[in-house]
Flavodoxin
Amino acid sequence: MKALALVCSLKPSPAASSSALIAQQVLDKMAERGVTGEVVRVVDHDVKPGVEADMGDGDAWPEIRRKIADADILLISTPTWVGHMSSVAQRVLERLDAELSETDDEGRPAMFGKVGITAVVGNEDGAHKITADLFQALNDTGFTVPAQGGTYWNGEAMKGGDYNDLDETPEAVESTNSTVARNAVHLAKLLKEKQYPAS
């Protein structure tokens, strides 16, 4: 089985990223269950604005889309900025909108049978709202969200500090990362064995 993490940090590689760190932690938990993981830091690629599968010359989304199609599990990881997901995460959702018109050979939406999960970091409030928005968008485009399919960390409000700077992963986040990974892999296996009915 394969998992793809789309890291929606505003920081290009190789800058340290809290969104990348928590995404890798969840992938590592899935790796313990035999899942191969890959990370794509979206800002490193020229993903054009739009709602089509391919926005033309120079658009990097078609290659990312191919990776999504090859994966069983999609993780979207985003920082919190002014209480919202990053603009990069919003662009990913806008590009996923094209999947509403894509179907498989039996007429099912192309993303049916794939699991969608989330990770949110920030030193301000907003993680629950961002998670809800991501869940709705993933579900709309055909992904299945498992029970407790999101993990997050928020630092103390009105203070600096990044998840990336912590000496160790807080116990609650560690436990939630494990739950997200475990439930995502479980659900992906079930969907692989028994796909949704054809239309």
In short: The first helix runs from residue 18 to 31. The CA atoms of residues 51 and 161 lie 35 Å apart. The chain has one domain: 2-193. The chain has a mean pLDDT of 95.
